Amino acid sequence: MSQNQNQNSDQNRNQNENQPSSEQLLDVRTIDGPPFGDIMSALGSLDDDGQLRLVAGFEPKPLYEVLEARGFTYETECRERTDEDNDDDDEEWHVLIETA
Q1: Number of domains observed in the structure of the chain
Q2: How many CB atoms lie within 10 A of CB 96?
Q3: Alpha carbon distance 8, 65 (integer Å)
Q4: What is the reported pLDDT for 90?
Q5: Taking a C-beta distance cutoff of 8 angstroms, is the pair 22, 50 a contact?
Q6: What is the pTM of this model?
Q7: CATH number at residue 70
Q8: Can you say whether residue 10 is alpha, beta or left, with left for phi > 0 and alpha for psi between -120 and 50 degrees?
Q9: More confidently predicted of 57 and 82
Q10: Minimal CA–CA distance to 64: which of 27, 100, 72?
Q11: What is the pLDDT of residue 94?
């Protein structure tokens, strides 16, 4: 293999490593009843480098310990809702979950 081919191969490998992983979205605000089973199912279907973005109308504090025990890391962010037609809560919680 020539030196140029080696450099191109290294560049392609670095580009693939820098690409964001796939992200699934699960909005539990639309689930009727406790969302725990839906969340666990979505986590079970993640690829090794996949991410799950959980959206909830409340901070899912009880979930954090479960995530840690099962080898996941997470980042939580509270955002103000922008949907003016919705008179419910003014906040939505986004939890980005990935395998540790």
Answers
A1: 1
A2: 14
A3: 44
A4: 78
A5: yes
A6: 0.72
A7: 3.30.110
A8: alpha
A9: 57
A10: 72
A11: 97
Give residue 29's domain range. Answer: 3-99
Residue identified by tokens 């009843």 is: 33
Hunting for tokens 């090794």 — which residue is that? 48
The first and second tokens of residue 68, run together, are 């840690």
DSSP state letters, 50-81: -EEEEEESS--HHHHHHHHHTTEEEEEEEEE-
Cα separation, 97 vs 67, whole angstroms: 8
Phi (first) and psi of residue 14, to 5 degrees: -65, -40
Report pLDDT digits (tens) over 21-50: 689 999 999 999 999 999 999 999 999 899
**Amino acid residing at 62:** P
Instruction: Report residue 66 as tokens.
Output: 């479960």
> What is the pLDDT, as a whole number, of residue 77?
97
Nearest to 100 by CA among 24, 48, 53, 45: 48
